[in-house]
Specification:
- This protein is of the alpha+beta class.
- The protein has three domains: 374 residues, Na+/H+ antiporter like fold, CATH 1.20.1530.20; 59 residues, 2-Layer Sandwich (Alpha-Beta Plaits); 58 residues, Alpha-Beta Plaits.
- The chain contains 18 helices and ten strands.
- The strands form three sheets. Strands 1-4-2-3 form a four-stranded antiparallel β-sheet, with no helix packed on it.
- Helix 3 runs parallel beside helix 12, helix 7 packs antiparallel against helix 8 and helix 11 packs antiparallel against helix 12.
- 41% of the residues are buried.
């Protein structure tokens, strides 16, 4: 029966996704409603211990893949404001909400601050889902800002939740030491394990399909467990691990992307369904007025005050600040932290789970549904950009790659129209950067000196069955400043092209000197296939 039940849930989840894409309702909200519906039909489920464990695993996957899918080149220009929002922003929102709960709703002060901490972070799954499904191509790098903020602010909320739970329980743990340990250990383990995993992934080659995903899953589990054992913030460590590994090149990356893309989606569906199933409809109705008042306060006052105040030094546009304020959607992490509070030894006088559950449902419904309309009304959509460039995994999943070439002052391309370009291969002109402008090319668009042309075409695979791999040589790498012939490397991989800074394309030989920041294009040959041999015995590629 359990298998039939699970299959029905997954089919209904697919229908919910279709409804979401058609009507703009956040899909994850529909999963919660689906769970509540099963509960209303008489399926009783109140196992908070199981829910806590499942929510922890789901958040581990969501946090890691949220970092893995973040394209750092897009996020770097807005990293400072995003990090401020994900740390100080969470603290400010939590304190303002907690004080409101205490002075207006008459909560105990510490319990009010606990509720504020639990709902202090924004939900990455909801924010990224809305950005992608509604194709919100936001101006001023707003999408990367929201992605980094929502992807990295759960650790801050988790730490604050732990602090106030410790106070309620009466633990003799020093609050400052707890916070310092959570942050420093989380950062240290995250960066340390990312470095070790990166070295391992770059140096090893696994032939069997699926094993790279197993390796990455093991890395995620070990990182989280080690961080927690040492008293650090495991979610922070996983986000650091994800963003570090997601922005380096290694063999098997496409396989990992496909695996975690589907696995993360399943975990999100399961998490939101379980959270909905765990709720009691009568308690939900009873606490609904409190949840509504808190949600409205956070949406209208706490979040905008925090955003406008903290972003003042960064000089963001007025409409950009409005969108960032509206995008403060609460979701799965908050409900998971509420379950953690219920399972703790804390004696609470409020129904923290259903209050937080109501806040998240209302936030997802109201703010999530308003995002597309508000983006258009506030003129924040940019037709010349795509929000998908914010996420690493779209390019990693696709067989479409991009080449960038500069039109120099003596180029024969100057004055030609796009339709007159002699494209002998399956390439298209995807876009043109001209100064500060981005041009979507038409057939009559004329090429000018100084243009940067972005070509798109099929990549990573050729019809003869040879895998094409890209590898960036970082500073300090053992290949940097070495001739290809001096690299003692196996013959089943060949360097076939090098792209150097400034878009210089080099056809390599054994005497070619590799430099830091070079992008190397490699061809992998089956070891039992003798149809292709290297031109020189020295030419080969990474082990």
């Amino acid at each position: 029966m359990i298998y039939l039940f699970t299959g029905i849930i997954l089919l209904l989840a697919l229908i919910a996704i279709r409804i979401s894409n058609k009507h703009g309702i956040p899909a994850l909200l529909l999963f919660i409603i689906l769970g509540m519906g099963f509960g209303a039909m008489g399926i009783k489920f109140n196992d908070y211990a199981f829910s806590d464990g499942f929510a922890t695993v789901a958040l581990m996957v969501i946090m890691f893949y949220g970092g893995f899918g973040t394209r750092w080149s897009m996020g770097k220009p807005v990293a400072k404001p995003a990090i401020v929002l994900s740390s100080l922003g969470v603290a400010a929102t939590a304190v303002l909400t907690g004080l409101f709960c205490h002075f207006v709703l008459k909560f105990d002060l510490i319990e009010g601050l606990l509720v504020g901490s639990i709902v202090g972070s924004t939900d990455f799954a909801s924010v990224s889902s809305i950005l992608r499904s509604k194709k919100l191509n936001l101006k001023y790098n707003t999408a990367p800002l929201l992605e980094i903020e929502s992807g990295s602010n759960d650790p801050a909320a988790y730490t604050m939740t732990m602090v106030f739970l410790s106070i309620i329980i009466g633990s003799d743990v020093s609050v400052p030491l707890l916070v310092i340990a959570q942050v420093l250990v989380g950062l240290g383990i995250g960066f340390g394990f990312a470095y070790l995993a990166g070295m391992l992934l770059r140096s090893m080659y696994i032939q069997a399909d699926g094993l790279y995903s197993v390796l990455m899953a093991a890395t995620v589990l070990i990182t989280f467990a080690t961080t927690n054992l040492l008293g650090g913030n495991g979610f922070l460590a996983l986000y650091i691990l994800g963003i570090s590994l997601g922005n380096i090149e290694f063999h098997g990356k496409r396989e990992i992307v496909f695996f975690f893309d589907g696995f993360t989606e399943i975990m999100q569906i399961g998490l939101f369904f379980v959270l909905g199933l765990l709720s009691d409809f009568d308690n939900f109705v009873r606490t609904f007025p409190i949840a509504l008042v808190i949600m409205l306060f956070m949406t209208i006052i706490a979040r905008p005050v925090t955003v406008f105040g903290l972003m003042l030094p960064f000089r963001l546009k007025l409409n950009q600040l409005k969108i960032v304020s509206l995008a403060g959607i609460r979701g799965a992490a908050a409900i998971a932290f509420a379950i953690m509070a219920v399972n703790s030894e804390a004696k609470l006088s409020i129904d923290v789970y259903h209050i937080v559950f109501g806040i998240c449902v209302l936030s997802s419904l109201v703010q999530g549904s308003l995002m597309p309309a508000a983006s258009r009304r506030w003129k924040m959509l940019d037709p010349n950009e795509t929000v998908l460039q914010t996420f690493n995994y779209y390019q990693d999943k696709a067989r479409i790659g991009f080449l960038e070439t500069q039109v120099h002052s003596n180029s024969s391309l100057i004055g030609l129209r796009v339709k007159d370009l002699d494209m002998n291969f399956a390439l298209i002109v995807a876009k043109i950067h001209r100064g500060t402008r981005t041009i979507i090319p038409k057939g009559h668009t004329v090429i000018e000196a100084g243009d940067t042309i972005i070509l798109a075409g099929e990549t990573h695979f050729d019809e003869t069955g040879h895998e094409l791999l890209e590898f960036n040589i970082p500073k300090g790498h053992k290949w940097a400043n070495h001739l290809i012939r001096d690299l003692k490397l196996p013959h089943h991989r060949l360097i076939i092209m090098i792209q150097r800074k400034g878009c210089e394309i080099i056809v390599p030989s054994g005497d070619t000197l590799l430099l830091a920041n070079d992008k190397v294009l490699m061809m992998e040959i089956d070891e039992d296939n003798d149809s292709v041999e290297p031109d020189t015995p020295e030419q080969g590629i990474m082990s």
